[in-house]
Amino acid sequence: MNRLHLALLLLIGCIAALPWFGGPYALRLGTTACLYATLALSWNVVGGFAGYPSFATAAFFGFGAYATGVLLTLGLPLSLSILLSLLAALLLAGLLGAVLLRLRGHYFAIASLSLVEVLRELVNNATDLTGGGMGLNIPLAAGSGILADAVFFFYAMWAVLLATALMVIGVSMSKLGFGLACIRQNETAAGMIGLNATLYKSLAFGLSACFVSAAGGLYAAWVHYIDPSDVFDILYSVKPIVMALMGGIGSPLGVACGALVYLGLEEVVWRHYIQIHSGVLGLLIVVLLLCLPHGLLSLRLGALWRRARHV
Amino acid sequence: MLHPTSQRFSLIAALAMTAVIGCGASLARAADVIRFGAPLPLTGPLAPEALKQQQGYDLWAEQANKAGGISVGGKKYQVEIVYVDYQSNTPRAVQAAEQMITQDNVNFLFGAFGSGAAKAASTVSEKYKVPTLAATASSSQVYDQGYKYLFGTFTPNDTLTTPLTEIIRKQAPDVKKVAILARNDLFPLAIAQEMDKSAKANGLEVVYFEKYAIGTLDHSATLSQIKSLAPQWIFITGYTNDLLLVRKQMVDQEIKASVVTMIAGPAYQDFIEAAGQSAENLTSASWWHPAERYDGKDIFGSTENFVKLFRDKYHSEPDYGQASAAVCGALFQLAIERAGSLDHDKVRDELAKLDVVTFFGPVKFGANGQINSLDPPVFQIQGAKPVVLFPPVIKQGELKLGVN
Amino acid sequence: MLTAQLLINALVLGCLYACIAIGFSLVWGVLNVINLIHGSFIVLGAYLAFGLYQWLAIPPWYAWVVAAPLFFIVGYGLQRLLLNRVITAPVLVTLTLTFGLDLILNNAMIYAFKADYRKLTLRPPLGSLSLFGVVVPVDRLIATGLALALTGVLYWLLRRSRVGRAIVAVRLDRDAAVLMGVNVKSIYATAFGLGAALAGCAGVLMALIFPISALTSSSYLGKAFVVCVLGGLGSVSGALAGGLLLALVEGIGSATIGPSHATTLSFALLIVFLIVRPQGLLGRKGFE
Description:
The structure holds 3 protein chains of 3 kinds. Chain A has one domain. Chain A is built from 14 helices and 2 strands, in the order H-H-H-H-H-H-E-H-H-H-H-E-H-H-H-H. Chain A has helices at residues 3-15, 24-49, 57-73, 78-100, 105-125, 127-130, 146-173, 175-185, 187-192, 197-223, 228-231, 235-247, 252-272, 277-291, and strands at residues 136-137, 225-226. The relative contact order of chain A is 0.18. Chain B is 42% helix and 20% strand. Chain B is globular, with a radius of gyration of 23 Å. Mean pLDDT of chain B is 86; it is low at 17-29. Chain C has a domain at 22-216. The interface between A and B is large, with 54 and 50 residues.
């Protein structure tokens, strides 16, 4: 476990102290921060480690939200529902991964994007189960006062974040991580030295989906009402990528920091630039990609004076 | 110089810190002002609806302030409306509600737009015990959580379809088959389901009931199929753009029927103008209509006065969305003045007790908080003008059959 | 009778879909860039046509004369100044960059034109043609005719003109084209400009038939995606084939399993094609 991994765990530990410093609104922000960091760290497994530009995060986020939501309406307790959606996502993503990860580059990106659309429409049409376009009302999971609720969901999301971070650290230190790095650098060569690329890629895809699904499930329980366009929103796929780009693709610490910085920026922009916030997000993306392609973690303070060179 | 890793780490931490502090700052509270929070989807797909809500709220605030403000136990308070955009995203609506209560220190809340967002955001307002008036939440599911601080000015969806079906059944006995096409979205689908129930309860045969996806560009295949089934009554739900498109494609394919009902297009002036001749004889229902004549005890007084004030300010006809928003403001005003204080519980009790006629119609809330005193009007476009067919007290004309 | 009507609907719609996709296909095939701004360009073209008709009474079938050069210049400039910097970057970067640019353009349009829908209603309205029990609206026919004309012009351009031949050369083999003396940077910008011009003209045609709003840009983009994957990249015939296939699948799907499933079907078909036949019906293998 190297220094950066320790720094990541330390960062997460610091976040846990939030309830001592803030009221319910700050906790709401904190829960969102943990959510974003989970999504970004998970994406990093398939996008950063394996090098496959996945846009499927929203698909599994929505999947988790609906799976948990439906289980909750059927009466199952929260922890069991989330666990089941996590396992279901792991399985589903593993299977889908075996098929979809045979595609490369653009084609894979599009296939993962279409996955979001397909899942959304499937949910939209299963009106009897999911409420379809009318959305799903989820029964209140806990409920004894504003602060207690806020703290509960904050720590639950924080636990998911911690689990994700541990998973990511575990992967990067294991044979799987090494294999993914080989795949990222040269998949054909990796195959030639006997690496079972399909297995590794499926595992990576599965791992990148399961915690996203858990986060989605917790999210559904948190907001009590979800509809397909809310949770299968393509922005849930793009934002983790932007966060990863901001922090530095491949580095878990960078990605997590990117998530926090992104949330901060998003809050500031949302409050002050009501009408043009998506334009500002777009501008941020453009500036980031043209000037800072390796993320904030690659910034050396002295280099701020030097113009970024080609990608 | 610090070690490179620590350098980067501290830079990032500093940025993150600044961002968080930036959000933590709250606004100072001004004296002698009552703040009403209005979370609206000012951007995203629901933006056109949000603009209408904003018009209604602003008109009321302007009128209230012109009259000197709201009188609270003898002292006059100015009205201020705080808008927050939740980007047509329901979870953000919840966040917006909490932000307005905890950071912006609003005294009362208007509900978020639509049943879904209103229900979601109401959990927050209930927890903080802030009285909330929802202007556009019609689904009875919004009010089934036993909340005390939530009220709504739209009657349940079936109050739109039931009178309509009865009128058609009585005055158009030849109508036997109904085709229903609904947009796969909260309100349009809910209303279509009510129509389905209503039709079956009245002995009509529902030969077609399908949903189209949000953002559908082409309905030609669907409409061809409906045409081949030859229903006498075609019932379509969606937002203005969907209905304009469907209507145009119906004309393109020369689909004719005795009765064509669209919800909620014909209630809007811009729909009637854009559809032109093809809007003739379309039927519809909504929660309020400018042709109504009520003599209200609220700040707007009569319906005509409201319509006149609206026309003067915005140079267009008001529809039920703006009217509902404005009446929510007016109802808050009545409740606050009767309570004589800004105390949440006192105002809430006054709202629950209300039994008053307003420009919007008679207002009385049921035990669950949803209004149950309205008779939503059914109307038909005749001669490019909406003509009210129901309720009898404000009836303006008779049903005309045959839509080309 | 119903089948005949459905087929005619699909035929007409298919040509429109092809028109939407052709610019997208060109850019993807030649520059290997997925241009996510395409949908917003189409909507902008539609607004242009609307404005021209509303204030200058220029009907849409002439509006493209204004739209084409305008969009070409914008596209050329955009590529030369911004996209060229990341042309050799991995897929992720270009995709996210165009996503960001699209957010800016989309937000700007909503800010400027407001989100409510406009409808270009022709006065007097053109009505419908009725032949053997099958009804076709005249404005769709005109739009289809113009769409085919547009694809025909592009086809001619790529086959006969010097610039067109250079574009095809770059698409077939970039390095060989450089060796042949083709100024690849300029060709990239030209191709992108051409793609933007085609999007703008497609938008002008769409204004005739569909309501106009910045909120529809993702629907157009989605259609363009599916058409390109189904039909194959970089070729005119591919776009036509893809468009027709998509329209047929949607129409038949709508009639048999209901319209709500038609969208799911088209995206599921997309995934199947990507896995089984990524080059599409008429495309050539060899692009990642």
